[in-house]
Structure formats: C-alpha cells, structure tokens
Specification:
Layout: E1 12-18, H1 24-32, E2 50-56, E3 60-66, H2 74-86, E4 93-99, H3 107-115, E5 120-125, E6 138-139, H4 148-159, E7 178-182, H5 196-207, E8 211-215, H6 220-226, E9 233-236, H7 241-247, E10 254-256, H8 257-265, H9 268-275, E11 286-290, H10 302-315, E12 320-324, E13 338-341, H11 349-361, E14 365-368, H12 369-376, H13 380-385
Parallel strand pairs: 1-3, 1-4, 4-5, 5-6, 7-8, 7-9, 9-10, 11-12, 11-13, 13-14
Antiparallel strand pairs: 2-3
Length: 394
C-alpha cells in the first residue's frame, strides 16, 4: 500500500441490512456500479459479510458491507444472522433494504441501529415492480438504477462534513519541527515495507511542514548526535521503549506509535485507566490480548510472546493469556481481568470503540500495547506529557 492510498480503517463503512431477497446485494452493486456481491433469485445467497473498499462520489473513500439476510432459518441461518449483526460494531452508517413489493423489513435491526447511534436510511427496493407508491418513503430500483444517484447523495449526507479532521501527531508539534521515528528492523518487521502507523506518522509529519527522520533503534544514539539541533519529538515502536528511553535525553519528548494510535482512535484515556489493573492482578487471572490484524507469528511476537513474558515478570503472578486477532473478538468477556489491545490501526474507530465499550459494560479493564509497555517501564508519564496528560508513575 502506498502512502497516498486510504487504508480500510480510515474509510467510511456503510453496511446493508435486510431480509433475504430484499435485494441487498443487487442494491450494493448498483450503488458501487460494480459487481461486488453475488446476486441470485435463490434465498440466502449471501452467507457471510462481504467487504469492498472503493471510492464513490460524492461519498468519497468508503467500505461497502453486504450482509446475510436477517430472516435466515435453521441452525446455520442463525449463525449467519449473528455474523450480520456483528457488522454493527464497525458500521459508520447503515442502509436497511426493504422489499417494496411487500413493504417488509427487519424492524428489530432498526432498533439496534438506533441504540448504537448509527445514522441510517430505509430504502424500498424493486420500485420497478410497483404500480403505486406511498408518500414519504425512499424508493429505488437496483434493476433499473432508478434513484440510485439519490441514494448516493443521501449516504453522503449520513457521512456529514468532516470537521476538525483528526491528526495522528502533527497537532502536537509546531510547524517546522523535527521528529525522529525509531523503527526497529528485526525478524518480526514486515519485509520491504513499513507498518501502517509508521506510514501514517511520516505522512502526517510531512503534510504539516515538519521533518521526519527515520532510524533504527540500533542507530538512534548516532542519529541524535548527528543532528545539529535538538529533536522536537521522538516516536518509537513500543517494544523498544525501554532502550529508547535510556538513549533519548529527558529534555526531548518521547512517545510511541501505539500510544499515538490509541489517542487517534479515541480510547487513550480508557487505556491509561485500564493499565492500573496490572497492579491488582492475581494468580490464575486471565488476560485477553487482542489484535485487529492477522499476521504470521514470529518466535518473538510482541503480542503472544513478549508482552505475556513482561507481565509475568513484572507482576510475579501466574497469569493466563488468551489471544484474538482480525475480525474475531470474544463475546464472553467476563472471564478476563484485563484486555490489552493493539494500536488498532487496521480497525476503524467505530469498531475499536465498540470493543472498548463492550469491555466497560462487563467491568473489564481495557488498555493497549504501548500504554502497558510504558507503564511497566516506568515511563508512562513521560510518554503522555506531549499530549498534555498527567500521569504519576509508581
């Protein structure tokens, strides 16, 4: 992925819900002007949510999500319905598709959408089969493309104007600043590319008129000594936090990509509160380590190996760990004493905040990688200082 392309996590997610044969897939294809979803007269053609990233005017960069019919039947149908409802965790907007010939649509999903404060629209598909139309309803025809452009405009309005666009780091530094980014290159680093938070940080720094200097942790001391002026900020990969904090002078602000991502996604305050749970862990407690992406596990993987070892060493307790990755996230959270999430760069804000709120509802502490690592190394206060947040390391 190039620096100019919009990652899925930054796109506007629009989910299509409805009963079987309401024409969800056909309508999604019509809105996108592409054959994204398989269409058939047979009920239950869509068996799993289908995601497609694209650009649609006037909506802009978005992800269209086709879902299984909410009136599916049987044991397998029940599983499909559950998968469809899980899409609510990540939907920024919803389209409820009704069959105009019957007027039926799943009103229970409308209640759930309202409860989640998701902007939505109800559209009555198959307008081409009607002789009469009721006032006040939004009619479309996926077959003839009637009023499809009106639907695109309506979806753009659901998105609204993007005011006060959030920044990953540039709002924390003056224009013209020099930021040093510490990027370890080891066995767990992806070959030939940078991970998404590193790409986003570089682009944000450059767009703001500042200077980005990239270096490995092994070259950091040399890099800082060669600068003819003091760096304004150092951002490090979290797993190198201890080593980097020992090299970077106290007069230079220091934080991590993971902590910046928690702020960017909107859950940094919760992550800082949640990290306090580490002080209260007991033998036999279970921690969930959740990642938003899937990747090949290395022998020194940060989520499954390093963090568990660091926590056991820090607490001296016999802690159990469970792991989730990608789209998977456990429904039963009560068994966990703490959830440690990655920076969530591959999840849109809606989904990671949904995970956080679900943990809150279950009274389970929620934090993330960078916050935990900074905490255990006694540098969380320093890591938060540039963001104007006060924390007292103990």
């Amino acid at each position: 992925m190039g620096l100019n392309s919009t990652p899925r996590s930054e796109r506007f997610h629009i989910a299509f819900f409805g009963n079987r044969n309401a024409g969800k897939s056909s309508l999604l294809n019509a809105v996108s002007n592409q054959d994204i979803a398989v269409v058939s007269e047979r009920k239950g053609t869509t068996t799993d949510p289908v995601y497609k990233s694209m650009e649609i005017l006037p909506i802009g960069p978005c992800v269209l999500i086709d879902t299984p019919g909410l009136d599916d039947e049987g044991e397998l149908g029940g599983l499909r319905i559950r998968k469809a409802r899980e899409v609510l965790r990540k939907a920024d907007a919803a389209v409820i598709v009704a069959d105009a010939t019957s007027g039926d649509y799943p009103e229970d999903i409308e209640k759930e959408i309202k409860a989640e404060n998701i902007p939505y629209i109800v559209v009555f598909n198959k307008e081409d089969q009607l002789k009469e139309r009721k006032e006040g309803l939004f009619y479309v025809s996926a077959k003839t493309k009637e009023h499809i452009e009106d639907l695109r405009v309506a979806l753009s309005r659901l998105k609204g104007e993007e005011k006060n666009e959030k920044k990953l780091v540039s709002d924390l530094i003056p224009e013209g600043s020099t930021v040093v980014l510490v990027i370890p290159i080891d066995s767990s680093a992806p070959k030939g590319r940078l991970i998404l938070p590193q790409q986003q940080a570089i682009r944000d720094i450059l767009d703001s008129g500042s200077i980005a200097v990239c270096t490995k942790d092994t070259e950091l001391e040399k890099t800082l000594s060669r600068l003819s002026y003091k760096a304004d900020l150092v951002i490090t990969d979290s797993q190198a936090f201890r080593k980097v904090s020992e090299i970077v002078p106290e007069c230079i602000p220091l934080t991590s990509f993971s902590i910046l991502m928690a702020r960017y996604k909107g859950f940094l305050d919760e992550a800082v509160r949640g990290v306090e749970k580490i002080k209260k862990l007991e033998d036999k407690d279970t921690i969930l380590i959740a990642e938003g992406c899937t990747h090949h596990r290395q022998c020194e993987d940060i989520g499954t190996v390093k963090i568990p070892n660091w926590i056991r060493s820090y607490t001296g307790k016999d802690i159990s760990f469970e792991f989730s990755s990608g789209q998977g996230f456990p429904e039963n959270l009560e068994k966990y004493s703490l959830i440690i999430h990655c920076g969530a760069c591959m999840l849109n804000e809606k989904e990671v905040l949904s995970r956080m709120r679900e943990a809150e509802r279950r009274n389970v502490a929620f934090t993330n990688y960078g916050t935990v690592i900074a905490f255990m190394n006694g540098i969380l206060s320093r890591s938060l200082e540039i963001m104007g947040k006060v924390y007292t390391d103990v």
